[in-house]
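agent> call fold_tool(seq_1)
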Amino acid sequence: MRLVRLTSETQLANFDCGDEDLNKFLVEDAKGFLDKRIANSFILDDNGGIAAYFCLLNDKISKQEVTNSQWKKIKNRFPGGKQFSSYPAIKIGRFAVSSRHKGQQIGSMLMNIIKDMLDAGDNFSAYRFITVDAYLTAVGFYEKNGFVKLTQKLENDHTRLMFFDMMELE
């Protein structure tokens, strides 16, 4: 398997992760997000088939999005003179593993690839956190991969805002 960055020329093979929204994003929206400079998508190619994919976009963690107690925990990660009302992040906009590859630890492997890729230092902009609006059914997966719930309440009826501190890699 190899990780491939989606381009406008990328031929997309059939993909089914068992979630219609995630399936449709790859086929119907990923190239448009690339074209409009909203998000970059990456495909885990398995000999011409798609084993998994994810997309990344810019984000922030801001005081307005979290409870006061959670904000204090975020703010305490920074020295006194470097405390702001928001901190830069990279968001995992979509993350899906095909149904036929589930149970093979591909999701955790891919999460480590994302962290390593972002930590490589080839970025033109700085960020401290990785964020994700995790489906409630995936919260355990993200926790297993080092993410922490940013809010104690549900963002809506099916996701929870979570974050990973890139300083954890040092």
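agent> call fold_tool(seq_2)
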Amino acid sequence: MTIKFWLNGKLTEDTIAADTLLLDYLRTKRCYSVKRGCETANCGLCTVLLEEKPVLSCSTLAARVNGKHVTTLEGLQAEAEEFGAFLADQGAEQCGFCNPGFIMNVLAMMRERKDPTEEEIREYLAGNLCRCSGFVGQERAIQAYLTWKREGESV
């Protein structure tokens, strides 16, 4: 079957098997930030944005993106680097394996919520597993990032 969609802002057309998972397809397109973790849709490592909403690419058929916009971390480098500096500053990056999916969810949250509460932040993090930490450093990084963004917007 043929699919035609926007990948990180670039119109893409390809022929795929009907059962191709989005995760596998994206990795063939050099989107290596999209990682395979649990293979049970529980860890968040494969998170991408589909029409600006976070989805797990390991449980999404590539055919579903036909006519839509898909964004991976590769398409959000400036934002990812900006937020990544806050993760590093809070000592929250540790091994970094979970960072791409984690960052995708944080950036999705920033698009959907102007001023998220601590509870909303935890809800957005709920689908991401981090084997190195309990998200304490990550939550501090998010709070610092939100404060920085708010201060920048009020200038």
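agent> summarizing second result for user.
The beta strands are 2-7, 10-15, 47-50, 53-56, 69-71. The chain has two domains: 2-74, 76-150.
agent> awaiting next instruction.
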